[in-house]
Design goal:
single chain, about 270 residues, alpha+beta, 2,3-Dihydroxybiphenyl 1,2-Dioxygenase, domain 1, TATA-Binding Protein, 2 domains, eight-stranded mixed beta sheet, six-stranded antiparallel beta sheet, about 30% helix, globular
């Protein structure tokens, strides 16, 4: 069976001993632009982008760096993501890996693209990645159970109830260094006025280190930030609704660097998706 074609490498993640020292070096030597820093319980990551090629590089410093056979937490290679031209190419790759007896994840769709994850014989993590076109708003494929509510708005299904979904999104946001500014319980407010309303909560989250540079470049973006995640009970179950980062980038004329910084919200929602 002939392997499906590749179009190149979409992003490169490296394990390093000091993210700030390495980030300064990549900025100086390669002219990369810093997108964001993310402080997680087990690692710290600085994301850079090459303005000329669009190549994204993630520098990761892990809390534990064991010796021995390859481990992505050791200084060196974290994982490699190979780019494909079309979303359907990931399905072809999935069939190809299955035919060759290679264990792999299902194809996973996110707000910014889709991925297929597997490992080589040395346990090095590899990905096939398709990036959603920035101008493809409202027409690109979303995960099963996810639809576009209105132009530029994404609706995702959650496998949990409203309260548990809000709880898990809150925990996931804080674990990623994202600030939870407020939680608004609209149904509770409605009941205080003697009005019945399906369970409806809004979680307001953001990262000033990420959002502020984008707002300085496009001041009107402050109308849309911090990000609002609407969690509500619907006939089909719990759903999470939020503005598509790609639509925001188009609306406010953001640079690719600032647009990439806003895309993390789509990955946050994956912790509750059906």
């Amino acid at each position: 069976m002939t392997a499906p074609a590749l179009t190149g490498i979409s992003h490169l993640d490296l394990s390093v001993s000091d993210v700030e020292v390495s980030a300064a070096w990549y900025e100086q030597v390669f002219g990369f632009t810093r997108v964001r820093r993310v402080d997680l319980p087990s690692r710290t990551m600085v994301v850079l982008i090459s303005p000329g090629t669009g190549l994204v590089v993630g520098l990761n410093a892990h809390a534990a760096r064991p010796d021995g056979p390859f481990d992505e937490r050791r200084v060196g290679l974290d994982h490699v993501g190979f780019a494909v031209a079309e979303r359907g190419d990931l399905d072809a790759w999935e069939a190809h890996l299955t035919a060759h007896g290679v264990e792999h994840s299902p194809v996973a769709d996110t707000g910014s693209g889709a991925a297929l994850v597997f490992r080589d014989p040395d346990h090095i993590q590899l990905e096939m990645w398709w990036s959603k076109p920035a101008t493809d708003v409202g027409t690109s494929r979303e995960p099963e159970g996810a639809t576009m509510a209105t132009s530029g708005t994404i609706r995702r299904g959650s496998r949990y109830g409203v309260e548990e979904t809000v709880h898990r999104l809150t925990d996931a946001a804080r674990a990623r260094g994202i600030t939870v500014f407020a939680t608004i319980d609209h149904a509770l407010g409605a009941r205080s006025a003697g009005i019945d309303m399906p369970e409806t909560q809004v979680l307001i989250v953001g990262n000033p280190a990420v959002g502020t540079p984008a707002m300085l470049a496009a001041p009107d973006l402050a109308l849309a930030l911090p990000t609002r995640l609407l969690v509500r009970a619907a006939a089909s179950g719990t759903e999470v609704v939020f503005e598509d980062p790609a639509a925001l980038a188009t609306r406010y004329g953001l640079t690719p660097e600032h647009a990439a910084a806003l895309g993390g919200i789509s990955h946050l929602v994956t912790v509750v998706e059906t």
